[in-house]
Amino acid sequence: MKSLKNANVKGKTVLVRADFNVFPVKPHELRIEKTIPTIKYLLSNNAKVILLTHIEENNGRIPSSKILLPYLKKSLPMKKITLFENLRKFPGEKKNSPKFAKYLASLGDIYVNEAFPASHREHASIVLLPKLLPSYMGFRFEEEIKNLSKVFNPKHPTTLILGGGKVETKLPILKKLLPKFDHALIGGVLLNFFIFGRKPLFSKKLVLPDQVIASGKKVLDVGPESFSAWGKIVKESKFIVWNGPLGYLEKGHVAGTKKLISILSKAKAQVIIGGGDTLACLPPGKKLPKNIFVSTGGGAMLEYLVHKTLPGIEALNK
């Protein structure tokens, strides 16, 4: 890994590709807070910092990165930092335009990728820009790789907990990850696929909840009676990976997810939790036990676990 500690940043202008894709911004935003040590390190070494980030379109409009300023000012000396406009305002970003990447490269001397959650995307600031400048991983990015790589040689028994939406995305990933785990507890939209879609369980490793809360032909949450059997599996596990909430968060069904957080907080296993919606259910500002690592990635986390690399990592290595 190309560590930032090995870079000479003194007096240099450093482009920090962050992932501050949070809208609206709430207190204790993990993706922002975990990037701050890298930024402070650069400033302490007399580097000029230009922050690059994207914020997704919201209700048909692309927000300005200015919405981040009130939050960033609480932790950083923003007079010493340049916050670049939302990358999504430039078509060249998502189109992976070489011309746009060259423009960004002209703004700085060094590139630092601190956007692990976006590093599965082949966008200009992720895969083209690092090829044009001396490029390094940020401290948080390194931490993500170090912890997620434990999946490749874990202590058994191992358990995968997979929830959230997007069956078309989660189902192929479930099939690819399953060989690495002894059990897979299923929640979220995948339950509709197996229960109401009457799809057969394709592996004995799959464990559906004993009880679900449903409306019509839609599962809303995992019922409380499920946690007797699930709790036993968690208790016996030595390594657990969880991605995606168990319930329909948009409709306020968070009980199952919060119950699982409580159970995992008492587990003795090494636990990795990821996924933006999952993170939103964690107690804000509360310190979790040391055996729990919270990844800032959702799709990027799963892609890394499947492929052992990401487009953003490959770009840093070239």
Automatic annotation (TrEMBL):
It is an enzyme of class 2 (transferase). Its EC number is 2.7.2.3. Pfam families: PGK. It catalyses: (2R)-3-phosphoglycerate + ATP = (2R)-3-phospho-glyceroyl phosphate + ADP. The keyword Membrane does not apply. Keywords: ATP-binding, Isomerase, Kinase, Nucleotide-binding, Transferase. GO terms for cellular component: cytosol. One of its GO terms (biological process) is gluconeogenesis. One of its GO terms (molecular function) is ATP binding. Belongs to the phosphoglycerate kinase family. This is Phosphoglycerate kinase. The lineage of its organism: Bacteria, Candidatus Parcubacteria, environmental samples.
